[in-house]
Each structure stands twice: as structure tokens, then as C-alpha cells.
């Protein structure tokens, strides 16, 4: 160990800056979620530009379907980039993921509409979303492992920033939505305005790429033996860990994508103005950004498990009445209350999930295990949440259907939390 320290003092003997490490690691996560949130918020405009149909509902379902289909490739990205992070290094995997995310962003920003290039437009848009989905597949596992291994003594707090940046991304995307719907006409947004936030996202990528190139691997990871086949180890000996990690994530990711779905839900089902819908998601972004790291800090004092149980129980008890209030008394205020409440409960639960998942897996399979479990949960229960909720509303004829979905997933996460609590005790 002393020889390693002498040979690489910059990487091993010098404690990295917490703030620099946080910024460099989380900026890629922010770019990922900003693009995802923008696509969800502007789904109806994207549907009109790239998925034309005589029936507006069919056009929207196609756009939301492409949003969901892109998540199908995330587990593949998790397998490939997660294993790469465990075998070669967290830093190299983080560089690959942010480059791919930027490529997909460029394609969406500058893609001509269906009216200009025909069927090539939706095909290339789908390809761009697949590229972004693949890159996002490796981002969470590599970046969370990187943070936790650099600062194990602050793991609850520092890992909470992974999801705080998702709140910041929602905040930025909502601000763009609110600004565009306030300053531009509906025709201007449809023609070119929806591309503005995607273009802004392209500015974030090069900054993150530059900073990530100057990071060092965690010293304990550099000193550890590297697995030859982390996926084989996971599938062969750690299947239960994967299932528990997936279960911990499902309610968290479902709420996240429900918040992305709010603009479409509010305008199409509740018939509220777009500015009100984006104002509600703006509130959610503020809560997620501010409350999540505070909950991570609080978890260092009171423990992670009590906070998670509190959030799950409150969600199960209150989510149906909250949706009923909005459906029966549809006003901007009731929508704000619903979205703010979901964001608050999500912040409490969300803040502790990354560090708890990291504790489930040993170092040699941590990036792979976290990436695969996270992305399976996001793909199955998150990416398709807007589409599932749209279909449930159509099938049941009630706008309360999203609350049923969230209650079922909260029970599933409760089972996973109970099993994880016993395992880590």
C-alpha cells in the first residue's frame, strides 16, 4: 500500500476535494436527467414534430412509447459500462457515458421534422434515445460507486447528491417549460421553441467531460483486485442482492417519471394550462434539489432506514386521497399540492437509496450491481410509467389510475427495504 502511495501521490495520498468530486460526478447525472425531463415535458410537441397522426392521442402515445422504448437498452448499457467500470475503472466509464449522452443530445436538437425528411425523422430520434439510454445505463452505478468509495465516511450525504441533481435537472427543465409557454406562442413552441432546452443541454456536456478527465480513481478501488467477470459473479452468487436493489428503486423511479408526466397529465386529463403544469414541476424541482441533500445529511444523524419507512408509509396512506383531491377539485393550487407532496416524499426516500444500494454490493461488483439493478427498475417501472398511466387512465376511465400504480410499487419497495434491513443489520 505504501508503494502505491509513493508511486501515485496525486491519486492516492491526497484527499480529493469533496466539492470538485461532487460536481464532476453529478454533472453527467444532471445532463442525463435534464434530457429525460425535457423529452417528457415536451412530449406533445415532439409527437407533433416526429410522430404525426390524424389522432392526437395516437401521436402522443407514439412519442411516449419512444420515450419508454429507449429505456429498454438501459440494462444493456448497465451490463457493458458497469462491467467496464468494475474491470477498468470508474473514471473511464464515466467519460464514455457522458460522450454518448452528448451525441444523442446533438441528434435530437438538430433533427429535421417528419415534414422535412419523412420517416427518417422518427427513426433517427429513436436511435438518439437508444444511444442516450445506453449511456445512462452506466452512469448511476459508476458515479455512485466513485462517490461512495472516495468518501465512505459521508456516504449517506454525498450519495444523496446523485438524486439531488435529478431534482436540479427537473428544476431547469421546468423553468424552460414555464418560460417557453409564457413567452412564446403555441405555434412558436411547436415550430422551434421545444428545441431550445435540448440545445442548452449540449452546453453542460463539454464542461462535465473536461472536469471528469482530471479526476482520479478512488485509492481503495485502485488497490483492490479487479474481477475478470463481474456479471458472472452477480448472476451466479448475488442474484438476491440484485432483486433487493431493484425493489428499493421501483417506487423512487416511478415517482420520478410521474413528475415528468405531470405536464402531459395536467393538460390532457385535467385540462389545465401548460404554464400551470410546468409551474408545478418547477416546484417539484426546487423541493427535490433542496430537500434531498438535507435528508441525506439528516440520515447521517438518525439513520437511513427510519427515513425510508416514514416516506413509504406516508405515500401508501396519502397518495390516493391526494389524487382524488386534484381530480375532484382541479385547480392550480391542488395540482401544486399533489406535485409538491410527491416530491417531498420522494426526497425523503430518494436521499438514502444510493448509499444503501452501494452497501448491498461488495466493491468488486458494486458498479455493475448498482447499474444493472437501477436500470432494470428504471426501465420496467420508470421509463414506461407515463405510458402505463396513460393506458390505465384510458382503460379504467378515471384520472385516479396513477395513484393505484404508485401504491402497488410502494408495497413492493417496502418488501425490499425490510429484507435489506435484515441483511445489513
Topology record:
Blueprint: H1 2-7, H2 9-12, H3 18-41, H4 43-50, H5 56-69, H6 74-87, H7 90-110, H8 114-117, H9 120-150, H10 155-183, H11 186-193, H12 195-212, H13 219-223, H14 230-237, H15 239-268, H16 274-302, H17 304-328, H18 332-350, H19 353-360, H20 366-383, H21 385-396, H22 401-424
Strand content: under 5%
So what's the overall shape? Answer: globular
The major β-sheet equals: none
Task: Count all strands and give the number.
Answer: 0
Round the mean pLDDT to the nearest integer and report it.
84
Report the C-alpha radius of gyration, rounded: 21 Å
The helix count comes to 22
Structural class category: mainly alpha
Q: Pick out the low-confidence regions.
A: 1-13
Structural description of this entry:
The protein is built from 22 helices and no strands. It starts with a helix and ends with a helix. Residues 1-13 have low confidence and may be disordered. The radius of gyration is 21 Å and the shape is globular. Helix 6 (74-87) packs parallel to helix 9 (120-150). With 425 residues, the protein is an all-alpha fold. It is 84% helix and 0% strand.
Summary tags:
425 residues, mainly alpha, disordered N terminus
Amino acid at each position: 500500500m505504501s508503494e502505491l502511495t509513493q508511486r501515485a501521490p496525486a491519486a492516492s495520498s491526497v484527499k480529493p476535494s469533496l466539492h470538485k468530486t461532487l460536481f464532476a460526478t453529478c454533472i453527467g447525472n444532471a445532463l442525463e436527467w435534464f434530457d429525460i425531463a425535457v423529452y417528457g415535458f415536451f412530449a406533445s410537441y415532439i409527437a407533433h414534430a416526429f410522430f404525426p397522426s390524424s389522432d392526437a392521442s395516437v401521436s402522443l402515445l407514439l412519442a411516449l412509447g419512444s420515450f419508454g422504448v429507449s429505456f429498454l437498452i438501459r440494462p444493456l448499457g448497465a451490463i457493458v459500462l458497469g462491467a467496464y467500470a468494475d474491470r477498468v475503472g470508474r473514471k473511464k466509464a464515466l467519460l464514455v457515458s457522458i460522450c454518448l449522452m452528448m451525441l444523442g443530445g446533438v441528434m435530437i436538437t438538430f433533427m429535421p421534422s417528419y415534414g422535412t425528411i419523412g420517416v427518417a425523422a422518427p427513426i433517427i430520434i429513436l436511435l438518439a434515445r437508444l444511444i442516450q439510454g445506453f449511456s445512462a445505463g452506466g452512469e448511476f452505478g459508476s458515479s455512485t460507486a466513485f462517490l461512495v468509495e472516495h468518501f465512505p465516511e459521508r456516504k449517506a450525504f454525498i450519495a444523496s447528491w446523485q438524486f439531488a441533481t435529478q431534482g436540479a435537472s427537473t428544476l431547469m427543465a421546468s423553468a424552460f417549460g414555464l418560460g417557453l409557454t409564457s413567452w412564446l406562442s403555441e405555434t412558436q413552441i411547436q415550430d422551434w421553441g421545444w428545441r431550445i432546452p435540448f440545445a442548452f443541454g449540449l452546453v453542460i456536456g463539454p464542461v462535465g467531460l473536461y472536469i471528469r478527465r482530471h479526476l482520479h480513481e478512488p485509492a481503495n478501488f485502485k488497490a483492490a483486485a479487479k474481477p475478470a467477470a463481474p456479471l458472472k459473479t452477480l448472476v451466479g452468487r448475488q442474484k438476491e442482492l440484485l432483486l433487493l436493489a431493484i425493489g428499493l428503486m421501483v417506487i423512487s423511479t416511478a415517482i420520478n417519471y410521474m413528475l415528468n408526466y405531470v405536464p402531459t397529465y395536467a393538460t390532457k386529463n385535467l385540462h389545465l394550462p401548460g404554464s400551470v403544469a410546468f409551474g408545478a414541476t418547477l416546484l417539484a424541482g426546487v423541493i427535490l434539489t433542496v430537500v434531498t441533500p438535507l435528508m441525506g445529511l439528516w440520515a447521517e444523524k438518525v439513520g437511513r432506514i427510519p427515513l425510508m419507512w416514514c416516506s413509504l408509509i406516508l405515500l401508501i396512506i396519502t397518495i390516493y386521497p391526494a389524487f382524488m383531491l386534484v381530480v375532484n377539485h382541479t385547480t392550480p393550487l391542488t395540482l401544486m399540492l399533489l406535485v409538491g407532496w410527491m416530491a417531498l416524499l420522494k426526497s425523503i426516500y430518494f436521499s438514502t437509496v444510493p448509499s444503501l444500494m452501494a452497501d448491498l454490493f461488495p466493491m468488486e461488483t458494486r458498479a455493475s450491481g448498482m447499474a444493472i439493478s437501477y436500470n432494470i427498475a428504471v426501465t420496467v417501472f420508470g421509463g414506461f410509467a407515463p405510458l402505463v398511466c396513460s393506458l390505465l387512465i384510458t382503460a379504467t376511465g378515471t384520472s385516479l389510475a396513477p395513484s393505484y400504480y404508485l401504491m402497488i410499487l410502494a408495497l413492493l419497495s417496502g418488501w425490499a427495504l425490510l429484507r435489506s434491513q435484515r441483511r445489513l443489520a
